[in-house]
From TrEMBL:
SMART domains: UBA_e1_C
Pathway assigned in UniProt: Protein modification; protein ubiquitination
Protein name: E1 ubiquitin-activating enzyme
Tree of life domain: Eukaryota
Example of a GO MF term: ubiquitin-protein transferase activity
Active site: C819
Reactions catalysed, as given in the entry: ATP + ubiquitin + [E1 ubiquitin-activating enzyme]-L-cysteine = AMP + diphosphate + S-ubiquitinyl-[E1 ubiquitin-activating enzyme]-L-cysteine
Similarity comment text for this entry: Belongs to the ubiquitin-activating E1 family.
Compositionally biased intervals (Basic and acidic residues): 22-34
Protein EC: 6.2.1.45
Keyword Nucleotide-binding: yes
Pfam families linked: E1_4HB, E1_FCCH, E1_UFD, ThiF, UBA_E1_SCCH
């Protein structure tokens, strides 16, 4: 997975390895007889509602059923409904806790609109908690949402399993934490705070907390090759895959032949772990000799953590976990800064005023007094510049910071309620000062103006806010990341002026499974286009958002939509994609157009941390100084942002032309963020969002801009409306175009040329690669991100500063050999891969081939004869059987077909295999054929009393009837009546045949062996087909059934799981339930709302830098985070590779442009003037000129564009101003020189 690129095993060395020091009471596995430690989320005595597996399928892939049940029984309090509190509450509602109580005694101010997407100007003066209840309830009707508006006391806390505070002083926090810490059972206490570009989280889950699953990963397994009779015993495993065991792990053995003493289920400790072997601390000298077989499986043990109370932890914070080694000394500074802020607020009853010198001095004195009183952990010096930044923006809750911390804290609440994943132990500090503009902020620039962006302006200044609003942004993808990005962009004010524009594109539609993490979507959006719904939702967040929602996939096929003009106009590109190919494409495009690409992603969980964690990102601040005028509040919704960044940056944000591609989970979050930030929220800004997908029910659990009533509506349209509701000033266009070469007439050159930034919110690699290519071409910033489970990553692609997305690639996923999948499976994954292949062959491909034959028999026959190979023969055999002996006219025929298929797949084929290769068979070298990892299979005996057998017949016969258009009788789903009907089927006796060829070569690419008789057999089969066609009723057609995993009523997964489990039973492989089968066969990407929120928050912090401009590469950050552990790893982006020739140098971002309608000769002379000889010139896949061919000299005096039209048949559309050429050149010494793409501007 792409987002794991910079998580390597070496990174684990940063983490503590001493389990006792980490808080475990014991390094032995828990005694199975020992009672489990009670968890706050215990479901004992609580009736837990059934899990809606369609809605929560992606979340179930991360957490599992048991964790979801604990969540469904949990009651949570969120106190303080500023932007951070709203983000946390949103993530908890999407996660599906039993109840969320919102507490606040403060009323809504204009300042709050900069980060709280639930609020609008109509809510000003209302209680913050009460104003959020109804909109939060919309996210998940299964969660009980209520408001508490009175002063909070300890008496209120006892009903909750976890309490979260986002706006509380230290004294009150000490009181509440002491109560929670000593309560029986303990109440998990979390204190979180965001102050401008600084944030903190503290967790206290009680004196003793049991982590049931530290990392969420499946237990590691190995297939045993040998076990020695030694002390200690050496266990060797087959070398198909490296072992993942580490010293100290515990494992159990099963299926061992010979040394049966190890099959007792007793955990044994691993030592001397190696890639393909390990030792166990056991004397096996007196055990029986190992013969064959055996599986070794890791035992995942619970872990006990002992938390300090807040009072004790503040006095003794202990060690700090570093994530950014460029800020090695920053951690204790932030610990002091937050204490100084609390002291200032107690003394003055308010936050320091932005840009106020007197307040800055008072704040510095508070810090100095606290530091002087310390006996341990005292700072030698106080970083006055950093503390001034802290004080100036301390009141501001910035949306990207709120989104990021909302993801972190939301995940910590899930851990507290379920025991799933390792908690944050115990402090986390973060800052992003590097997001500030590179120019100075004066007091006027950060002065509040009673704008919804005042909080943001107080940090970044009004100039950057203006840039954000006028940004031309492209967000690719509107799934989980896309939803978060849209939310963030809307809140930030990105593309929220008439000069700005945000384009989001996604060709997907909303599914039910999206709803648990793509928070812009609702039940009623299912089957609607993702980008449309997400864009509408983002517009609801910020009505000023200028957004276009497209339903185009960003790929080469849509380059007529996302054309050169489109790319050239972009300021930044944000990826919200979920696959590497799409990311690589977007990277390539950003590289070509030299546009910044903000990349992110999410994934699962892998290791553990248990130290204090401090992080800062001061480089987010402007590169210029901020004066008091620039950060002065103006009663604007952006005052919080202006207080940090200044009004200049705020203006830039509002005038940004932004393109968001995708409006799923990432897209929804992005739109929300951009609307709150004020991006593209002035008449000069525009936000275009595109997504060709519609909303499904599965989207609602994580694509938070969508609701039940949006199901089947266009994602981009709904998301744009929702973002506009968050910020009515958002200038947003919602398109339903896929960003790909086919839509380059929509996203044309003019569109691209006007963009300020592109934000990808995509879910596949191909789309990302396309967007990368376009951003590269038009030299636009691309902001890329992605998620997978609890993991996320972000990548910034900045023109001329960083490498593009496609510059590095992950290794391809390992594929099981064909012979393993079809004849020698060893794992349930092999069985499910085979099952899906058979499903598609029987119910989609074969009916499709039947229809192809019937529509034009002569043409079909000619194509088969031309192919004349084994594959064509096999295909014709299937079609012939389907229209001949296996043709069904009645439902009883379908039952007979299903019963005979059962016999063929799970009995006859196994009998043939074991006849050809008996249990004592040997290879050509004399070694046993059935040695590890091969498993010797046993045929199944069909039984009507076996429910799994009958269910297989039911699902197979129903789908067979559907493909033949046969009515399905009511009794078809009655197991007893179906069993009676199956009993009537006569099953022929099977006799194995000699001489049957079964492929055993792991390198084979086909199971069909070629034959000299193929041509004659094909002729016979075609003749037979003609006879079959004569017996068909007029107009006969079959219905190909395309696999759909997200409909639990269509029997697709029933049949696939039945196929896989029967095959697993043949080979004694552990079976799986339908849900697990759905995850594997449906290739469901695990997804949760928290990692999506964090990814988009991180990307939007980078967006400040992109819009502000002038930031060096050292200020930008790529991030990998794993909320399960938690683990945060941030690094400076990699610069692009520089190539040189004579006095020239260039990178992949460069494109050589030539003005004028040149001839081929003039072009060759242009190269010659640079000291280069162009010996070959091509356009696309066509060769325009090569000096080796004499006839090419005739083209020298022709215009290059005319040669392209004549030779390459290039039809240059009117919107295209230039022709792109690839030239192969050499220097005077005959050395090849790789030069950039050459663009001839002939118009």
């Amino acid at each position: 997975m792409r987002c794991l690129r910079f998580l390597r095993r070496g990174l684990l060395s940063m983490l503590p390895t001493n389990k006792r020091a980490a808080g475990t009471d014991d390094d032995r596995p828990t005694d199975p007889k020992r009672p489990k430690v009670a968890q706050n989320g215990s479901t004992n005595g609580v009736v837990v509602p059934e899990i809606d597996e369609d809605l929560h399928s992606r979340q179930l892939a991360v957490y599992g059923r048991e964790t979801m049940r604990r969540l469904f029984a949990s009651h949570v309090l969120v106190s303080g409904l500023n932007g951070l509190g709203a983000e946390i509450a949103k993530n908890l509602a999407l996660a599906g806790v039993k109840s969320v109580t919102l507490h606040d005694v403060k009323n809504v101010e204009m300042w709050d609109l900069s980060a709280n997407f639930f609020l609008s100007e109509n809510d000003i003066g209302k209680n913050r908690a009460a104003a959020c209840v109804s909109k939060l309830q919309e996210l998940n009707n299964a969660v009980l949402v209520s408001a508490l508006t009175e002063e909070l006391t300890t008496d209120h806390l006892s009903k909750f399993q976890a309490v979260v505070f986002t706006d509380i002083g230290l004294d009150k926090a000490y009181e509440f934490d002491d109560y929670c810490h000593s309560h029986c059972p303990p109440i998990s206490f979390i204190k979180a705070e965001v102050c401008g570009l600084f944030g903190t989280v503290f967790c206290d889950f009680g004196p003793e907390f049991t982590v049931l699953d530290v990392d969420g990963e499946d237990p590691h397994t190995g297939i045993i090759a040998s076990i020695s009779n030694d002390n200690p015993a050496l266990v060797s495993c087959v070398d198909d895959e490296r072992l993942e065991f580490q010293d100290g792990d515990f494992v159990v053995f099963s299926e061992v032949h010979g040394m049966a003493e190890l099959n007792d289920g007793k955990p044994r400790k691993v030592k001397n772990a190696r890639p393909f072997s390990f030792c166990i601390e056991e004397d096996t000298t007196k055990y029986d000799m190992y013969i064959k077989g055996g599986i070794v499986t890791q035992i995942k043990e619970p872990k006990i953590l002992r938390f300090k109370s807040l009072r004790d932890a503040m006095r003794d914070p202990g060690d700090f976990l570093l994530s950014d080694f460029s800020k090695f000394e920053r951690s204790p500074v932030l610990h002091l800064a937050f204490q100084a802020l609390d002291k200032f607020k107690k003394e003055y009853g308010r936050y320091p005023a932005p840009g106020c010198e007197q307040d800055a001095q008072s704040f510095l004195k508070c810090a100095a007094d606290i530091n002087e009183a310390l006996t341990d952990h005292k700072l030698d010096t106080i970083d006055e510049k950093l503390f001034r930044h802290f004080a100036s923006g301390s009141r501001a809750v910035l949306n990207p910071m709120a989104a990021m911390f909302g993801g972190i804290v939301g995940q910590e609440v899930v851990k507290a309620c379920s025991g799933k994943f390792h908690p944050l132990y115990q402090f986390f500090y973060f800052d992003s000062v590097e997001s500030l503009p590179t120019y100075p902020l004066d007091s006027e620039d950060i002065k509040p103006s009673n704008s919804r962006y005042d909080a943001q302006i107080s940090v970044f200044g009004s100039k950057l806010q203006k840039k954000l609003e006028e940004a031309n942004t492209f967000v690719v993808g509107s799934g989980a990341l896309g939803c978060e990005f849209l939310k963030n962009l809307a809140l930030m004010g990105v593309s929220c002026s008439p000069k700005g524009k945000l384009t989001i594109t996604d060709d997907d539609v909303i599914e039910k499974s999206n709803l648990s993490r793509q928070f812009l979507f609702r039940d009623w959006n299912i089957r609607q286009a993702k980008s449309t719904v997400a864009a509408a939702a983002a517009s609801a967040i910020n009505p000023n958002l200028c957004i276009d929602a497209l339903q185009n996939r960003a790929c080469p096929d849509t380059e007529n939509v996302f054309h050169d003009t489109f790319w050239e106009g972009l300021d930044v590109v944000i990826n919200a994609l979920d696959n590497v190919n799409a990311r690589m494409y977007m990277d390539m495009r950003c590289l070509y157009f030299q546009k910044a690409l903000l990349e992110s992603g999410t994934l699962g969980a892998k290791c553990n941390t248990q130290m204090f964690f401090y992080f800062d990102s001061v480089e987010s601040l402007p590169t210029y100084p901020l004066d008091s005028e620039d950060i002065k509040p103006s009663n604007s919704r952006y005052d919080a942002q202006i207080s940090v960044f200044g009004s200049k940056l705020q203006k830039k944000l509002e005038e940004a032309n932004t393109f968001v591609v995708g409006s799923g989970a990432l897209g929804c979050e992005f739109l929300k963020n951009l609307a709150l930030m004020g991006v593209s929220c002035s008449p000069k800004g525009k936000l275009t969002i595109t997504d060709d997908d519609v909303i499904e029910k599965s989207n609602l659990s994580r694509q938070f801009l969508f609701r039940d009533w949006n199901i089947r509506q266009a994602k981009s349209t709904v998301a744009a409306a929702a973002a506009s509701a968050i910020n009515p000033n958002l200038c947003i266009d919602a398109l339903q175009n896929r960003a790909c070469p086919d839509t380059e007439n929509v996203f044309h050159d003019t569109f691209w040329e006007g963009l300020d930034v592109v934000i990808n919110a995509l879910d596949n690699v191909n789309a990302r690669m396309y967007m990368d290519m376009r951003c590269l071409y038009f030299q636009k910033a691309l902001l890329e991100s992605g998620t997978l489970g609890a993991k996320c990553n972000t990548q910034m692609v900045i023109p001329h500063l960083t490498e593009n997305y496609g510059a590095s690639k992950d290794p391809p996923e390992k594929q099981a050999p064909m012979c393993t999948v079809h004849s020698f499976p060893t794992h349930i994954d092999h069985c499910l891969t085979w099952a899906r292949s058979e499903f598609e062959g029987l119910l989609e491909k074969t009916p499709g081939e039947v229809n192809s034959f019937l529509s034009n028999p002569a043409q079909y026959a000619a194509a088969m004869r031309k192919a004349g190979d084994a594959q064509a023969r096999e295909l014709l055999e299937r079609v012939s059987e389907c229209l001949g002996k296996e043709r069904c006219s009645l439902f009883e025929d379908c039952i007979r077909w299903a019963r005979l298929k059962f016999e063929d797949y799970f009995s006859n084929r196994v009998k043939q295999l074991t006849f050809t290769f008996p249990e004592d068979a040997a290879t050509s070298t004399g070694a046993p054929f059935w040695s590890a990892p091969k498993r010797f299979p046993r045929p199944l005996q069909f039984s009507v009393s076996d429910p799994s057998h009958i269910h297989f017949i039911m699902s197979a016969s129903i789908l067979r009837a559907e493909s033949f258009g046969i009515a399905i009788p009511d009794w078809a789903k009655n197991t007893s009546k179906l069993a009676d009907a199956v009993s009537e089927v006569a099953v022929p006796q099977f006799e194995p045949k000699k001489g049957v060829s079964i492929v055993t070569d792991e390198k084979a690419t086909s199971l069909s062996s070629a034959s000299v008789d193929d041509v004659s057999v094909i002729d016979d089969l075609l003749a037979k087909l003609e006879e079959c066609a004569k017996r068909l009723p007029p107009g006969f057609q079959m219905k190909p059934i395309q696999f759909e995993k997200d409909d639990d009523t269509n029997f697709h997964m029933d049949l696939i799981s039945g196929f896989a489990n029967m095959r697993a039973r043949n080979y004694s492989i552990p079976e799986v339930d339908k849900l697990k089968a759905k995850f594997i066969a449906g290739r469901i990407i695990p997804a949760i709302a928290t990692s999506t929120a964090m990814a988009t928050g991180l990307v939007c912090l980078e967006l400040y830098k992109v819009i502000a401009g002038e930031h060096p590469i050292e200020d930008y950050r790529n991030t990998f985070a794993n909320l399960a552990l938690p683990l945060f790893s941030m690094a400076e982006p990699v610069p692009p590779k520089v190539m040189k020739h004579q006095d020239m140098s260039w990178t992949v971002w460069d494109r050589w442009s030539i003005k004028g309608n040149l001839t081929v000769a003039e072009l060759l002379q242009w190269f010659s003037d640079k000291g280069l000889t162009a010996y070959s010139i091509s356009c696309g896949t066509s060769l325009l000129y090569n000096n080796m061919f004499a006839r090419h000299k005739e083209r020298l005096n022709k215009k290059v564009v005319d040669v392209a039209r004549e030779v390459a048949k290039v039809d240059v559309p009117e919107y295209r101003k230039h022709l792109d050429l690839v030239a192969a050149c050499e220097d005077d010494d005959g050395n090849d020189i790789d030069i950039p793409l050459v663009s001839v501007y002939f118009r």
